[in-house]
Design goal:
The protein is mainly beta and 207 residues long. It has helices at 2-13, 15-22, 137-140, and strands at residues 28-41, 50-62, 71-86, 91-108, 113-119, 122-131, 134-135, 146-147, 150-158, 163-172, 184-186, 188-193, 195-206.
C-alpha cells in the first residue's frame, strides 16, 4: 500500500503542470466532479448499484499546430471510486483509485460537443470488502493494486462559456483480481476474473 501511495503522490504532484500550461492560451484547463454508478462483471451482481465520486482536474490541447483543428488530446488526473453491491449477500466492494486519463477527442457543434475515447489506468489507494458489515480481509487481498487498462468513452457538452456536462462509460479490459480467482472473462479465457463496469455523469468548469 505504501508503494501505491507514493505513486499516487507522484500523479498529484503533476497538478501544477495543468495550471502552468493553461497560461499559454491554446490549452483548456478544467475542474470536474461527478458520480460513478458501478458494477463488477464476474461477481454475481448485474446492476449499477454502487455509487462513487469522481473529482479531479483535466486539460485538453490540440494535437496539431492548427489551432482550429477539431482534434485534441485530453489528460485528466482524478480521484475516483469504483466497486459493487450485491444485495443478495449484503456484500459491498469499494476501491478508491488515483486515475490518469488519456483520451483522444473530437470537437464539433462550434466546439460545444466533445466526443472522446481512450484509457484511464488507475492506482488503488484503498480497498474495502464487507459482508453484512463485517470486513473481509481475505477477499480484499484478491484485488490487484492497479486497474491497468480501463477503456473509457465520454460525451461532453458545453452549455456556457465555463460549464459543461459529461456522460462517461468505462470498462476494465484487464481483470482487477489476481490469477486463479473465479469470475468471468473478457476477450480471452486467459483474462479471467472481475472487471469494473461503470457509467458516470458529471459537471466541469473551465478555468
Amino acid at each position: 500500500m505504501k508503494k501505491n501511495l507514493w505513486l499516487s503522490l507522484i500523479l498529484v504532484l503533476q497538478l501544477p503542470f495543468f495550471s502552468s500550461v493553461s497560461a499559454q492560451g491554446r490549452f483548456n484547463t478544467y475542474l470536474f466532479a461527478g458520480l460513478n454508478m458501478c458494477q463488477i462483471d464476474g461477481d454475481a451482481a448485474s446492476s449499477y448499484s454502487h455509487p462513487g465520486p469522481r473529482v479531479g482536474i483535466g486539460i485538453s490541447f490540440p494535437v496539431t499546430k492548427d489551432l482550429n483543428s477539431p482534434w485534441s488530446m485530453v489528460v485528466e488526473v482524478a480521484y475516483t471510486n469504483k466497486g459493487s453491491h450485491i444485495a443478495e449477500y449484503d456484500r459491498d466492494l469499494s476501491i478508491t483509485y488515483i486515475e490518469l486519463g488519456l483520451m483522444m477527442a473530437y470537437h464539433t457543434l462550434d466546439d460545444r460537443l466533445r466526443l472522446a475515447i481512450g484509457l484511464a489506468p488507475a492506482i488503488s489507494v484503498s480497498t474495502s470488502v464487507t459482508n453484512s458489515g463485517a470486513v473481509d480481509l481475505v477477499s480484499e487481498d484478491d484485488f490487484t493494486d492497479m486497474d491497468c487498462l480501463p477503456l473509457t468513452a465520454s460525451v461532453c457538452y458545453r452549455f456556457t462559456k465555463h460549464l459543461s456536462i459529461e456522460g462517461r462509460f468505462q470498462y476494465s479490459a484487464l481483470s482487477i483480481t489476481k490469477p486463479n480467482v473465479s469470475g468471468t472473462y473478457f476477450i480471452s479465457r486467459s483474462n479471467k476474473g472481475c472487471f469494473h463496469n461503470l457509467i458516470g455523469i458529471g459537471l466541469s468548469y473551465s478555468l
